[in-house]
Amino acid sequence: MARIESPAALEEYRQKLIEAQRKYTTTITICGGTGCRAHNCTAIHEETRRVLEKTGLSETVELRFTGCHGFCEMGPLMIIKPQGIFYTHLKPEDVEDIVEKTVVEGKIIPELTYKDPVAGISYHYEQEVPFYNKQVRLLLGMNENIDPCSIDDYIAQGGYSALAKALFTMEPEEIISEVEKAKLRGRGGAGFPTAEKWKAARRAISRDGIKYVLCNADEGDPGAYMDRSLLEGNPHAVLEGMTIGAYAIGACEGYVYVRHEYPLAVINLYTALDQARELGLLGKNILGSGFDFDVHVSIGGGAFVCGESTALMASIEGRIGEPRVKHIHTAVRGLYDRPTNLNNVETWANVPIIINRGAEEYAKLGTERSKGTKIFSLVGKIRNTGLVEVPMGITLREIIYDIGGGIPDGRKFKAVQTGGPSGGCIPEELLDTPVDFDSLYDVGSMMGSGGMIVMDENTCMVDIARYFVDFLCGESCGKCVPCREGLKQMLYILEDITEGRGTMEQLDILQELAEVMRDTSLCGLGQTAANPVLSTLRYFGDEYREHIQEGRCRAGVCKPLITFSIEPEKCTGCMRCRKSCPVGAISGKKKEAHVIDPEKCEKCGICLEVCEYQAVVRK
Amino acid sequence: MVRLVIDGQSVEAEESWTILEAARYYGIEIPTLCYMEGLSPYSACRLCIVEIIRGGRSRLSASCSYPVQEGIEVRTNSERVRRARKVIIELLLASCPNSRTLQCLASKYGVTRIRFRAEDRGCILCGLCVRMCKEQMQAGAIGFADRGTGREVAMPFHTRSEVCRECGACLYVCPVCELPCPGPLQPGQLCNSCLDTVQLEAFPSRE
Prior knowledge:
Chain A is of the alpha/beta class. Chain A has five domains: 20-129, 3-Layer(aba) Sandwich (Glutaredoxin), CATH 3.40.30.10; 151-362, Rossmann fold (3-Layer(aba) Sandwich); 373-456, Ubiquitin-like (UB roll); 461-550, NADH-ubiquinone oxidoreductase 51kDa subunit, iron-sulphur binding domain (de novo design (two linked rop proteins)), CATH 1.20.1440.230; 563-618, Alpha-Beta Plaits (2-Layer Sandwich). Chain A is built from 26 helices and 19 strands. In chain A, a hairpin with a 5-residue loop joins strand 13 (413-418) and strand 14. In chain A, helix 9 packs antiparallel against helix 10, helix 11 runs parallel beside helix 13 and helix 21 (504-520) packs across helix 23 (531-539). The longest helix of chain A has 18 residues, at 481-498. Chain A is globular. Chain B has helices at 19-25, 79-95, 100-108, 128-136, 169-173, and strands at 2-6, 9-13, 49-54, 57-62, 73-75, 143-145, 152-154. The model of chain B is unreliable at 197-207 (pLDDT under 50). In chain B, helix 2 (79-95) runs antiparallel to helix 3. Chain B has five helices and seven strands; from the N terminus they run ββαβββαααββα. Chains A and B meet through helix 19, helix 20 and helix 21 of A and strand 4 and helix 2 of B.
């Protein structure tokens, strides 16, 4: 492939690609996101290719293996365009049918379409599905049109036009002021205004002229996979954003810091880098503009704390990934002591959109102080697990009930945890809180990078707090005392409470400890580590008190506080529980009431699940 | 020169100074553990936290690494600082209950009980030995291993390092591996023998 030397050449190249795609009458896109891969979508892709070749359709039907489509609950997914026919839960054996009936004859196969589990309505087309039609998929929408390993797909969709526009028609200051007007705020968690960061990095003087831009892809919150899916599904958008940012700041080198647990993201990123360099969209003299910029990949070991800016830079430099004090900002002295600008994957991916659409158009989306869209990974006790992209300002209720489909199995909603281990749990009465940086902060949580874990009545809030503190105990770098020792003592106290040894005094200690950790920890991890505890104490204090004073866990999660027994009048002596008990704690003869031996019982709850007569009770 | 206010006094400080250096120059005491003159500041023990008021906003920050700035107000002994400092001493004591240095700090700053579960781990991870070995002895024989609650000071791969000259500088600076406090102690108990002799809290704070 020849280098593209000017914006006009890029445009010409794009037109050629679009022309070449005209020969296809139909496009089959198969989701190749991590969730669908776990359900064997690669086999479906292979099978589709084989069937298309066998039937001689590969000349008119385009097959595209894309990044994540978002609706992971229903995977593996397939969309047949231009109609947008949407098939779910596919198996390789369905493929011949699909090609024969849908692709050739144009008929829809009703069994494969999406059926709303509550309303019972079948939806044939992607655009009709309630999960999708409430979303605004500025970033994720690109995923289903692009093969992440093909720069041509990205360019055909208008890719790198923002870069050409920025390099040839805008001054660096103009780009920054455009981003400022769009009021873009960092998507990594804290929501710092991106333009402010860029300005500081542009102003900063480097002793040898070298400045860096970094992309933080060290996503590590439990249950979160937004950045992963963006990087896997559309790496060029991130690279384009970084190149524009580098031009605005005056940087000549960039790093993407990505964790090694994301192998597909790493592979796709390397492929994207090679392709962009080959076309002259990275490297020396980009698009013939005279601007040089290249990106390196730095693969992290998977430490949660390396998402913190100074720890991330230490890790890239090859030192231990631990934070340092930031009295001098990283915009002035960051990576290798040079001015450095760090943004999250999603922030970078927003940049080309702002440049292409213009700040005014972009700022129409969202609330007064939070603009644009935000991607959330909606997980936990929710019907439609998946990635959702919503405009800022939408309420939590709309996300959970309208897009997420509510709580399955007829259970009651209890709380939603946003912002990962640094966020907080939001109760039902605050579900009408608009989702933006400031509102979430006001209710004691935070936007975070976008994890959203839904909990139902079978979740114990004390146990959730214990889980997050336990996670952070292992993920704190261990440098400063409040974080390291504070988390450890917090975990001891929460273990005491969940195991029935808690005292009311410990609640006051928890509160005091949490406040001191927030005030005195060295980095953001420690300062926010107490949020799960503080927010559950604030909204679910009753549950703590029940554990301590009544020795009761209302969700039935804390094993030392619950007992299983069989009500003799309901038990028919069917032996099912006896046969299912893994520790042999249940005894009783056939057709006689059974008994659970509390000494042997492991409280796994299997008996409760298998009993058809509701004779097993948990107290 | 930079002008700032420390505990109500207007003072002048060299631009290169940290708040801790400025405070010590003017005889204002700020407790430290992981700080030592001649070693790079590490800001890990958080004992030297002070309240810094800048632009009408107050926050706690470690004074050992915070450079003096024009016009800021520093409070080294406010209610907020004292409360946080006490919790930090308590946390440190829970991890090294028999350290004489920590026992003395407890008495001095009015910590009279440990509400946390105490386990003697023999190290508070202040990193003085690591920095001493690297920065002053030019050896770098020891470093930190692991993270989170499993963090420890160790030689590479837990085997004896060839660069260690057994100079003993690490032992010399360690605030924990010393003779235990001679007070009437059961392990894990607080001594508080000198509680009556020096008690900072008894003095009214300048706020």
